[in-house]
Amino acid sequence: MGLVERSTEKLRTPRAEDYAYTVVWSEEDAAFIGRVAEFGSLAAHGSTQEKALKEIRKVVEFVIEEMNESGEKIPEPISKRRFSGKLNLRMPQQLHRRLSLEAEREGISLNQWINAKLSSR
């Protein structure tokens, strides 16, 4: 009988710098707004892009600490997720037909055609 080896890698708590941030100017708020993709409800203001980023990272640090203490599940950072490269996509029949015709005219597979269209955006 062979032994099954299990990963002994300890799961660590994500750090604020592991997350995906964006900073945009808000005319309405007359300030830069920092947001984090994995925590959709969080936002922070700053008079500069740098200050808004610094503020949203502080908020994320606080939220992670609070979630950790209360035993809540902390969202996995996008940067740490594994992606298979496979996507099941439903579309209207007419669109499927049109894309198949376009791919056929180009002499490539529908998969290659869709990838080319998505990559060019």
How would you describe the overall organization of this protein?
Helices cover 38% and strands 17% of the residues. With 121 residues, it is of the alpha+beta class. The chain has 2 domains: 16-80; 84-121, Arc Repressor Mutant (Orthogonal Bundle), CATH 1.10.1220. A hairpin with a 4-residue loop joins β1 (21-26) and β2. The model is unreliable at 1-9 (pLDDT under 50).
Keywords:
single chain, 121 residues, alpha+beta, Arc Repressor Mutant, 2 domains, 3-stranded antiparallel beta sheet, 3 helices, 3 strands, 38% helix, 17% strand, elongated
Helices and strands in order:
Layout: E1 21-26, E2 31-36, E3 39-46, H1 49-70, H2 93-106, H3 110-119
Antiparallel strand pairs: 1-2, 2-3
Summarize the structure.
By secondary structure, this protein is α+β, with helices and mostly antiparallel strands.
Relative helix content: 25-40%
Topology pattern, helix = H, strand = E: EEEHHH
Number of domains: 2
Structural class: alpha+beta
Q: Gyration radius, to the nearest Å?
A: 22 Å
Which oligomeric state applies? single chain
Q: What is the makeup of the main sheet? A: 3 strands, antiparallel
Q: Strand fraction band?
A: 15-25%
Question: Mean pLDDT score, rounded?
Answer: 90
Overall 3D form:
elongated
Looking across the biggest beta sheet, what order are the strands in? 1-2-3
**Poorly predicted spans:** 1-9
Count, helices: 3
Please give the number of β-strands.
3
